[in-house]
Design goal:
With 95 residues, the chain is mainly β. It has two helices and five strands. The longest helix is centred in the middle third of the chain and has 5 residues. It is globular, with a radius of gyration of 13 Å.
Length: 95
Amino acid sequence: MTPRTDRFAVGDRVRTRTVDVDGHTRLPRYARGAVGVVVQPAGVHPLADDRARGVSGPPQTVYHVRFAAADLFGAGDHTVTVELWNDYLTPVEGP
């Protein structure tokens, strides 16, 4: 299997998907629909959701994405960094 090409670069703004899937997902509920910034790529790995279902798909890039805590939880002046697979992310255009 050939890994997917990196879609995002360090500093890119991304939004997480909002789909509420059945079964296992590594996309935390608190981060769904949130906008964050790619901090760094974290390797290429099979999608954990697929592996939990016994499905094998192509490996994909995993990213460390930083979010403002206030955007995720409604309060806090710190940031939260989450490790997210490519399939969880869409690009955000503009500032």
